[in-house]
Amino acid sequence: MTAGGGKHILVAGSANLDFVVRASHVPAPGETVLGRDMATFPGGKGANQAVACARAGGMPTRMLLALGEDAFADPVESSLREAGVALTVVRRNDAATGTAFICLSDDADNAITVAPGANASLRAADLPPLAKVSHLLLQLETPVEIVCTYALAARAAGVQVLLNAAPARELPRQLLDAVDVLVVNEGELATLAGHPGSLVAALAGLEVPCVVVTLGARGSLARTNGEVHLQPAFAVKAIDTTAAGDTFCGALAARLGQGDGIRDALRYASAASALACTRLGAQASIPARAEVEALLRKSPAACASTYEALAAYCGLR
């Protein structure tokens, strides 16, 4: 399916150049670890999700982003355009292009430090027209007040708002009230729910129409219209999980934009995310739509015991 009326997804958010060092393990506080090879990859949560929406989800996608006037901007912009993402670029001559410094361990764990740079300079006036936008996808690597402004503008225009509440932080009620689909991992859910307990109990405290929780190698769940949907993870050999969550968010937005229900969108996003774990890099790891569809065709439905284990972990048993 495709979105009717020539609609597209708008992603507003961060774009970085990632500096990735491979090492035996992620250093503990105060520890120095001798790394091996170092490489740069285009990244940033917003840009990763835009690439996933266009490449893995096959949905017309535009991104609003801010870049510095420096050499780091070129590979970031080129990667987005090569993925088929249309761009609304804000140039800043007083800020550097955002960067991220990533230590990637041999067991696919990572530690990430982000220097936002130009990402922090997005303004309300930068938001492009929303007339042809079906869904607005946001994250929290840009100032939260701007994220809130964009979400409220989208809500007023009748545009569905998806928020990936990452990195974890408390959010103003005004922002949550403007969100249609909230995507979080377990840590982010705990921050927003404000209390420990089962995943289902934490979900009950969030007054958002649809909440999706990613659970890494276990899978994911969604609560919408009072129903809980479980999606076990696809089994893959993971070598780098850096952009797995971003791939999930972009693919989810794309499928919702094309008219999928939450159950089908959840399965598609899970398959795209699994494939992203099998390759190095952020945007470089995001699969094409044909690859995702091939994995879905050849993967049998999860067995009952797998669903039972996931249900028990989530607090449904």
From TrEMBL:
Main location (coarse class): cytoplasm
Q: In which pathway does it act?
A: Carbohydrate metabolism; D-ribose degradation; D-ribose 5-phosphate from beta-D-ribopyranose: step 2/2
Catalytic activity, reaction form: D-ribose + ATP = D-ribose 5-phosphate + ADP + H(+)
Q: What are the UniProt keywords, alphabetically?
A: ATP-binding, Carbohydrate metabolism, Cytoplasm, Kinase, Magnesium, Metal-binding, Nucleotide-binding, Potassium, Transferase
State its cofactor.
Answer: Mg(2+)
**Protein residues bound to ATP:** 185, 214-219, 245-246
- Might you give the EC number(s) for this enzyme? 2.7.1.15
Record-listed substrate binding positions: 16-18, 44-48, 141, 246
Record-listed K(+) binding positions: 240, 242, 276, 279, 281, 285
Carbohydrate kinase PfkB domain boundaries: 8-288
User: Which EC class is this protein assigned?
Assistant: transferase
- Give an example GO molecular function: metal ion binding
Top-level taxon: Bacteria
Q: Give me the comment on cofactor binding.
A: Requires a divalent cation, most likely magnesium in vivo, as an electrophilic catalyst to aid phosphoryl group transfer. It is the chelate of the metal and the nucleotide that is the actual substrate.
User: Quick one: a GO biological-process term for this protein?
Assistant: D-ribose catabolic process
Subcellular localization, as worded in the UniProt entry = Cytoplasm
- Family recorded in the similarity comment: Belongs to the carbohydrate kinase pfkB family.
Matching HAMAP family:
Ribokinase (MF_01987)
Q: How does it assemble?
A: Homodimer.
What this protein is reported to do is described as: Catalyzes the phosphorylation of ribose at O-5 in a reaction requiring ATP and magnesium. The resulting D-ribose-5-phosphate can then be used either for sythesis of nucleotides, histidine, and tryptophan, or as a component of the pentose phosphate pathway.
What is the protein name given in its UniProt record? Ribokinase
Which organism was this protein described from?
Answer: Pseudoxanthomonas wuyuanensis
Q: Which gene encodes it?
A: rbsK
